[in-house]
Amino acid sequence: MGKYQKLIVAVVVVGILIGAVTHMLKLQSTVMALKAENEQLVDENAVLSIDLELARQEAQLGTKPPATPQQPKFAYLTFDDGPSANTEKILDILKQHDVKATFFVIGSETEYSKHTYQRIVEEGHAIGLHGYDHVYANIYQSEDAFMDSMYKLRDLVEANTGVKPDIMRFPGGSNTTFSTKYGGQGLAAKLAARIHDEGMQYFDWNVSSQDATRPLVDTQVIIDSTLRGAQGRNQAIVLLHDAPAKKTTVEALPAIIEGLKSQGYTFEVLKRDTPPAHFRLP
User: Is 80 a residue of the active site?
Assistant: First the structure.
């Protein structure tokens, strides 16, 4: 074989190798894309499962307002599942309207989240515990698993704000079926007693914005649900969310604030001695 023939063969071999490598890279890229898509679907299904559970709870929300509401009337805007970029937007709106709220946060070690914890406290809002993570299968494994998640979050918040939270909200509410599913019958009652024994208070809600009954709820539905649910009450503890997906909650907030003001409400933050809203425990 002449040197030119050898050169041609070498070029062909190199071409085949390059083609093989290129094909392999494309396969890897396809696999990674499919993996990412699958993980996204899993996350969306998990969120949908939680949203459906909250929808079930809303159907059981039967607390009736008093026949003759009295003054003063207090509204407590509460936001679950932050911090996220939506939390910053919500804080901006609250500042513009000179309104204070309560944030039941989850755990995050990012600098952004630590800054947001600080901003919540510095701007006069209340900060409460919602569990270090929001994975129901983990947090509701047992009494110790639940409290460890709360303590871990409490330490994180205190280290970054100087405030040691003494209020909390059960992920999914105190009557969530997930506590029984993962931790067995009676877990919620044990947790409620433990929380009180340790000098803390938990809060459910008596007004739902319905912003978590689906992954994304129409802005007007959130406004109407909140204002309708607050009518005639002396105390309105409003469930809202500042998770990353809840962009329509941010859009609804200014109208909610103005609507509650027009109903005669004064805005307050939740404290340990605030009369709580408690669901019937499972």
Answer: yes
